[in-house]
Design goal:
Elements: E1 2-4, E2 19-21, H1 29-33, H2 40-47, H3 51-68, E3 72-75, E4 77-82, H4 108-120, E5 125-130, H5 136-152, E6 158-162, H6 168-177, E7 181-183, H7 191-196, H8 206-219, E8 222-225, E9 228-229, H9 236-249, E10 253-258, H10 277-294, E11 299-302, H11 304-309, H12 313-319, E12 324-325, H13 332-335, H14 351-364, E13 368-369, H15 378-386
Parallel strand pairs: 3-12, 3-13, 4-5, 5-6, 6-7, 7-8, 8-10, 9-10, 10-11
Antiparallel strand pairs: 1-2
This protein binds iron/sulfur cluster.
Length: 395
């Protein structure tokens, strides 16, 4: 049974109100949270908890996090090195069709400088992120940068890549050069919803996205994905399916946050159908907490979009189950141009300013910072051990 939020007279193809499932026989959260395995109905019931009852969910997630991955937050220095993109995702501010975005691409020297910054400050890991480009020049360049970053850090800096769908051969080449984690968000694991938020063509295919994720796993990357929370047309059942997808796909890392509409994108047309931002944020916290409970040993990133709604959004996510934060170490002058959504935080701050405020806030959230440690996904090592590939533990 689903309840539609909004007035019936507005329900048309152009103005569709979000449907959120209402579990008419709402179960007691205590009885759900005491179960060993949560099914879809349990997850839907938890997603529909009000603010008061969700405190029980958050407390349980805090407890599970402490027992499984410890009260440690790991840093990944985020380098958004280019906002050129060949794709046209309907929600994204840097989509190829947005002519108002000032395009930039950092030169190698600036990227290596940022990597050195992360290494010198003992972050232990960086993320190289950009729009999706698949030219030979781009592929060669990433390969070269991975090798140079490994060289400058005496092989010590961990490298996460987040540069979209690429061929199996490209993923393998970058893996062999030293990339060992890869983030490729699925945005929604429901094909119908995925298709509504992407153009209908072969360049934006749900099946290709799934195949790319499978390839990353097959090659041996710690594989990360994620979804947006509060999309137009999204229901609690969609979100429950997303969480079940993470579990079934056996992901190692997840980064997910609230959908924030961007005025220069086609989805902006549906802004009046969305949940208020604060409710999207609350739903995102519940998603993180449930995920920590159903997948205790994965890495969960506190996405920057959480902070765009609440200045303490990432730190609250840390308290509710997340264990990774990606301080933005992109040179400040380029940061304002990498806006997948609007009002993105920290775009005027230097990398140092960001870190000193983050340190204090993470301590306030009850965690210490895992300086000097890769903080790899424990789930990944268990997965590899079970497959007879590794015998060592996560560092
Ligand atoms: S979401 Fe990613 S792939 Fe899609 S347009 Fe934005 S940067 Fe490009």
């Amino acid at each position: 049974m689903y309840k539609k939020l909004g007035d019936d007279s507005h329900f048309s193809d152009k103005n569709i109100f979000i449907y959120f499932g209402i579990n008419q026989t709402m179960k007691n959260p205590d009885s759900i949270l005491s179960k060993n395995t949560l099914d879809k109905d349990d997850i839907i019931a938890l997603l529909e908890l009000d603010e008061k009852d969700s405190l029980k969910l958050f407390a349980k997630a805090t407890e599970v996090k402490s027992k499984s991955v410890g009260k440690i937050t790991y840093f990944r220095g985020l380098i958004e090195f280019s906002n050129h993109c060949s794709k046209n995702c309907l929600y994204c501010g840097i989509r190829a069709g947005n002519e108002h975005t000032h395009r930039y691409e950092l030169d190698d020297e600036s990227i290596l400088y940022a990597a050195q910054f992360a290494y010198d400050r003992n972050y232990a890991s960086i993320v190289l992120q950009s729009g999706e480009i698949s030219s030979t020049r781009f592929i060669d360049r990433i390969d070269n940068l991975i090798k140079k970053i490994k060289e400058l850090s005496d092989n010590k800096l961990g490298i996460t890549l987040s540069v979209g769908e690429q061929s199996y051969e490209t993923y393998k080449r970058w893996f062999d050069s030293g990339g060992h984690r890869y983030l490729l968000r699925v945005e929604s694991s429901t094909p119908e919803l995925y298709n509504r938020i992407h153009p209908q063509n072969a360049h934006h295919s749900f099946d290709v996205r799934m195949e790319a994720l499978q390839n990353l796993k097959k090659i041996g990357y710690q594989t990360g994905t994620g979804v947006m929370i509060g999309l137009p047309w999204q229901t609690t059942e969609h979100l429950a399916n997303d969480l079940l997808f993470f579990r079934e796909f056996d992901v190692d890392m997840v980064g997910m946050g609230p959908f924030i509409e961007h005025s220069e994108t086609p989805l902006y047309e549906y802004r009046n159908t969305l949940l208020p931002l604060k409710q999207r944020l609350h739903l995102a916290f519940k998603m993180i907490a449930i995920l920590r409970i159903i997948m205790p040993d994965i890495n969960i990133a506190a996405a920057t979009a959480l902070q765009a709604i609440d200045p303490m959004g990432r730190e609250k996510a840390i308290r509710y189950g997340a264990n990774v934060i990606m301080p933005n170490i992109t040179p400040t002058t380029n940061r304002k141009n990498y806006q997948l959504y609007e009002n993105k935080p920290c775009i005027d701050e230097g990398a140092d300013d960001c870190v000193s405020c983050l340190e204090k806030r993470i301590e306030m959230a009850g965690d210490s910072i895992g300086y000097g440690k890769w903080g790899d996904s424990r789930h990944f090592y268990e997965r590899m051990k079970n497959a007879g590939i590794f015998t060592s533990e996560a560092e």
